[in-house]
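Quick question, first post here. What does this chain look like in 3D?
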Amino acid sequence: MNQHFHRNFPHGFVRMAMVVLMTAAGLGGLGAGAAAAAEPPATAGDGSHIDHIDRIDDRRSTAYVYSAAMNRIIRLGIAQPATATGPRPVLYLLNGAEDGIDGAGRETSWQTKTDIVDFTADKDVTVVTVLDGRYTYYTDWQADDPVLGRNKWTTFLTAELPPLIDAAFDGNGHNAIAGVSMSATSVLSLAEAAPGLYRGVGSFSGCAETSSDPGRRYVQAVVLSGGGNPWNMWGVDGSAGWPDNDPSTPANLAKLRGVDLFVTSGGPAAVAAPSPAGTGLEATVTGCTRELETRLTAAGVPATVRYLPGGEHAWPYWQQAVHQVWPGLAASLSR
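> Answer (accepted):
Ran it through. Tokens below.
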């Protein structure tokens, strides 16, 4: 199937996309010395449950959650505030295509590549970083994939996981979600799939349109670069699954009304010619961001859209982005 997919791809695009994606920052290391937590496991009616929790220190832990929909354990990085005062909101963070924990057990994520743990130490929020799901777009796939397995991430992140996190980590039902690169598209779709679940959404350096070019080709190249077959995700190219899962269509954007939406990309909002800092992948997603802003305006969906000059498709820029939009995300979690 992948050979068939290659034949239908524009000449040279897959190789170019894979080279761009492989230029991400180096991988970080996992925390060590964790001890099993004493908390009783939380269980949902469908069989999804928290298998166990490893404590890293007073604030950080790794939770292992069994997903009934995917029939496997999903790893999560948890960061709680330094001072716990009772039930609190939850901020869910999704990584880029190559991030999380790789086959050698090395982690590169929000936790290892940004200051998110220290940044939220004095904030009344529990931060949950999903460490699995590389190359999957955090969506429900139509078919199991020989390489990427069974993926039912929409089900996991909208139905299975939130009640388990609330039960185990004293959540109050107020949630926000943010993602970078690949998952900047995913967080929009997840908020649309479960209206009211996520009060705030941060979408950083993404390409929202998944049923038209260049977004469609970008999605397919990402999945292929991870060894997966994008036809297993939403069907063959041109099938209904692609527009159905495109978060930027008018019908889907309408589901974001009432959500506090924060969208960023690196580079100016409009340029006559790309500057050196805006070339490559971030220049592409800036074009996608301008298109998303146009579609949001046409749909009458309010959003805060920021273009950060000099931003690149890398973790230092995304750390800057989350710092800038934090006051808005915090307000959404408190309302």
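Confidence is low (pLDDT under 50) at residues 1-38, 270-279.
The longest helix spans residues 315-334.
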